[in-house]
Amino acid sequence: MNEQTNHQHADEIRQKVRDAYAEVAEADSNGSCCGEASSCCGVSDEAQINTIISSRLGYSQEDQNIVPDGADMGLGCGNPRAIASLNEGETVLDLGSGGGFDAFLAAQEVGAEGHVIGVDMTPTMISKARANADKGKFTQVEFRLGEIEHLPVADNSIDVIISNCVINLSPDKSQVFREMYRVLKIGGRLAISDVVATTELPESMSNDPYLHSACVGGAALIGDLIEIMRQSGFEKVTIEPKDESREFIRDWVPGKNVEDFVLSATIEGVKER
To answer: Phi first, then psi: what are they for 117, rounded to 5°?
Structure first.
């Protein structure tokens, strides 16, 4: 592909992902079935099922009780806050913030003197998250419309970046990590849960738009991600795949054996200079 074709392909992927998650947000708001896009991370329109999904990912009942109804959409593949070691007064950025679930939990830890910014590229999700923030009176949380490849965030302004099952969806992961490095303060850190490829994906998977929106087709190889992060400037880079995630990943796309190719992982790194 030439550069123009690459850009067009990337834009097509972003639009398909945006459309898929707009469908999820609208279906959740309407209390109806989420359709094809619901396979990504097991999202359901039933709060009880989303509670079960989040429990499998490591969220406590207390976590789920803190957030407003409708914030937990079952869209994750892990619990990034569990590795974030957040402190009071910190500024946190949540990439692909969805209904605001992880952003609201982060707000509880950084307190009234802290600040949480959620970024999502889907207008319907932003509207939903803002309504949830108002409902839960989370005054230190704001949600901004934008792409994670072009963050609407100032340079050197963030202490911690969290993200839950979103970076795999981006067609330009190098740009995503460069942007994360740009907005972090010196000493800032990444605490990410995402899907990674443990072996090369067959073209039938990587070229499948449905599997891409289902958090599978766009997963990058672990070694490639480590190299991208280091080239972006990050140090103390670690990626730890979770074998136990095979069970719930199998449920995302039944019968496709996707768990033989991808796993959920924690991704960490530090901006030291």
So the answer is: -115, 125
How do the domains of the chain map onto residue ranges?
A: 3-270
> Is the pLDDT confidence value at 166 over 80?
yes
User: What are the residues facing 158 on neighbouring strands?
Assistant: 184
CB 5 within 8 A of CB 13: no
Helices (H), 111-208: 123-136, 173-183, 203-206
Q: Provide the whole-model pTM.
A: 0.87
Q: Which two tokens stand for residue 58?
A: 């490591």
Residue 269 structure tokens: 């790194």
Residue 31 has a pLDDT of 46
Could you identify the residue written with the tokens 């991370």? 41
Contact 241, 196 (CB under 8 A): yes
CATH architecture of the domain with range 3-270:
3-Layer(aba) Sandwich (3.40)
- Share of the chain residues as helix, strand and coil, in percent rounded to the nearest 5: 45, 20, 35
State residue 196 phi and psi, 5-degree precision: -125, 155
Instruction: Give the three-class secondary structure for 208.
Output: coil
